[in-house]
Write a structure and sequence with these properties.
The complex is a heterodimer of chains A (about 260) and B (about 350). With about 260 residues, chain A is mainly alpha-helical. Chain A has twelve helices and no strands. Chain B has nine helices and 18 strands. In chain B, α3 crosses α4. Classes of the chains: A mainly alpha (about 260), B alpha+beta (about 350).
């Protein structure tokens, strides 16, 4: 940073803009007082207790976890074979197929949500869980395809050829060699998908119902009505969970590889 | 001669590019055959077709007399060693070597014996429980070799196996591979772009260019009597002269002797007058570059190399612009046939 004062100052400013608001939220969560104010009045864990005892939050947390886990598994089950087909297969129009599976990144989620609302909830009379499951799976596909793809691109194709040469059928090669090679990539794709689903608001907001509502939507709802430190405590809990996942992902594969092998 | 494998009229083309063009080749049983040539000559494509990773566009490949043209790799029972080693990173050395045996449902106890025997053969029995990542490049290469041999393959295929090793290890591995071939009696096909490697290791060498075979033969024969200019060039012949009858002759740089014009000994063979353009030392050699005109009147560059320790001081006194005489004896002159 020395010798580049402008660049250095910008970096510091960036960190401040990113971190300071989070610090406000986290510190107010530990307040002993009744208001969401800074600085916090006293130190206490009471709002964490309240948050975890508040039934709508707990129910929504379980809904969110359920949705995130199932949609992540579905996205991986669909995404891994697609990645293999794109990278190792001899299919025509590979880039078109890849583009199709990455397109949920650019299509506005509200458009996807509206389509699912019309077709699945109104048209097919399905529950909002089914609609959300489809929506989140589509949303997570680009991550599953991209992250496992980065992992597969780093793997030497000769390793799979060697297995074939030693007598392994294509299926046996997939399970004995390709899948173990992809394991870190699949693990990272899973973590990233889980976090993305868990934190999603637009789709979850549009497709919610009285029976099924995710945590971020419930919290949004809560903030609109009351403004007490319980929301800060719940946010802090989610933040802690996300940080743990990010650290695990970083340790297992590294963020550079997770985001498409930027510096491989 | 018994063929372990045979190519008949094999062609491989990708779109407009022809990688291998109407190849006819027999791989002799129990011998080491080298496919030699520059990159893009079709040698690796030929090996990969033999292994089953590429299906020929035309022609047939037989292995031990049976048609294998469209057989998938897992049904061919061939041992392949890749340039990148291609070890399974999630398995130990022993598991790598035992992989093919496990697929063949060899019982665990017997498998262990075969694995250890083959690791012994490459001198790595003590590293059986390591992961590939913990081994040096040379050690990984030996594991790859042991893994390929462990399945008792009908042929052992080596795709530039030494090109990722450092110079000293590469030379050491050449004799190691020859020793293992001798001990196992395996038929080996080696792909390389290194003429020294081919000359040292082969029983038969096949020189390829642009998808075609240029010459096939024992290394000594190919080296002393290259069939055409391409083979000669690839094997280090540097002096090419067109004669008055239109024929092309070549002489190795170490066979071309340079003397000052007034002291030329009379001898049968080649004697041409030339002008020195450069005279330099390179390690143990002294290299003189000359220019002359051949029978057609075209300017030709000649190169003569001499071991420096055999030179008298007088010979070193050559300067650019000096007129000299370059000579080669009859038996050092190779007559080339025009390229196909």
């Amino acid at each position: 940073m020395r010798g580049r004062p402008i660049l250095g100052s910008l970096a510091v400013l960036g960190y401040i803009i990113m971190i300071v608001p989070i610090l406000f939220v986290v510190s107010t969560a530990f307040t002993a007082g009744d208001a969401l104010t800074f600085p916090p009045q006293g130190l206490s864990l009471r709002w964490f207790g309240e948050a975890l005892a508040y039934q709508p939050f707990v129910g929504a947390l379980l809904s969110s976890l359920q949705l995130a886990v199932v949609s992540t598994l579905l996205a991986l089950l669909l995404g891994v074979p697609v990645t293999l087909a794109i990278q190792r297969g001899k299919i025509p129009g590979k880039s078109l197929v890849e583009g199709l599976f990455l397109s949920p990144l650019v299509v506005p989620e509200l458009v996807v949500g509206l389509a699912l609302y019309q077709q699945i909830m109104i048209g097919l009379h399905q529950t909002s869980f089914v609609a959300l499951l489809v929506g989140h799976t589509v949303l997570l596909l680009p991550y599953a395809v991209r992250v496992t793809g980065a992992s597969l691109a780093l793997a030497d194709p000769a390793i799979e050829e060697a297995a074939r040469g030693l007598g392994a059928s294509p299926l046996r090669t997939f399970f004995s060699v390709t899948l173990p090679l992809l394991r870190p990539g699949i693990f990272s794709a899973g973590l990233l998908s889980f976090v993305t689903s868990f934190n999603n608001v637009p789709l979850s907001l549009l497709l919610q119902s009285r029976q099924f509502r995710t945590l971020p939507v419930t919290m949004l709802d809560y903030v609109q009505q009351s403004y007490d430190p319980m929301i800060a405590a719940m946010s802090t809990l989610i933040l802690a969970g996300t940080v743990v996942i990010a650290v695990v992902a970083e340790k297992t594969l590294g963020f550079a590889k997770i985001f498409g092998g930027i510096n491989k | 001669m018994t063929s372990a494998a045979e190519f008949t009229g094999v062609t491989q083309s990708y779109g407009d590019t022809v990688a291998v063009d109407n190849l006819n080749l027999q791989i002799e049983q129990g011998k080491l055959t080298t496919l030699l040539g520059p990159s893009g000559c079709g040698k690796t494509t030929t090996l990969r077709m033999l292994a089953g990773y590429i299906t020929p566009s035309a022609g047939t490949i037989t292995i031990n007399g049976a048609d294998a043209t469209r057989l998938p790799p897992e049904k061919r029972n061939l041992g392949m060693v890749f340039q990148s080693y291609a070890l399974f990173p999630h398995m130990t050395v022993a598991e790598n070597v035992g992989f093919g045996l496990k697929l063949r449902k060899v019982p665990a106890a017997q498998r262990r014996d075969v694995v250890m025997h083959n690791l012994d053969l490459v001198g790595l029995a003590h590293l059986a429980d390591r992961k590939p990542k913990a081994l040096s490049g040379g050690q990984q290469q030996r594991v790859a070799l042991a893994r390929a041999i462990a399945i008792s393959p009908s042929l052992l295929l080596l795709d530039e196996p030494l090109s990722n090793l450092d110079a000293r290890l590469r030379v050491q591995m050449r004799s190691e591979i020859r020793r293992i071939q001798g001990e196992t009696g395996l038929t080996v096909v080696l792909v390389t772009h290194d003429q020294e490697e081919a000359l040292e290791m082969s029983d038969t060498m096949v020189v390829m260019r642009a998808g075609k075979v240029m010459q096939t033969g024992a290394p000594a024969t190919v080296f002393s009597t290259p069939a055409n200019r391409f083979v000669a060039d690839f094997l280090g012949y540097e002096n090419f002269l067109t004669q008055s009858d239109g024929g092309l002759i070549t002489v190795r740089p170490e066979h071309l002797r340079v003397t000052s014009a007034d002291r030329t000994p009379q001898q049968p063979g080649l004697t041409v007058s030339a002008v020195v353009t450069d005279s330099v030392h390179r390690g143990v050699d002294h290299i003189v570059t000359l220019t002359t005109t051949d029978a057609t009147g075209a300017a030709v560059t000649l190169v003569s190399t001499t071991r420096r320790d055999t030179l008298s001081t007088d010979d070193l006194g050559l300067h650019p612009g000096d007129t000299v005489v370059a000579q080669a004896r009859d038996h050092e002159i190779v007559r080339l046939t025009p390229e196909k």
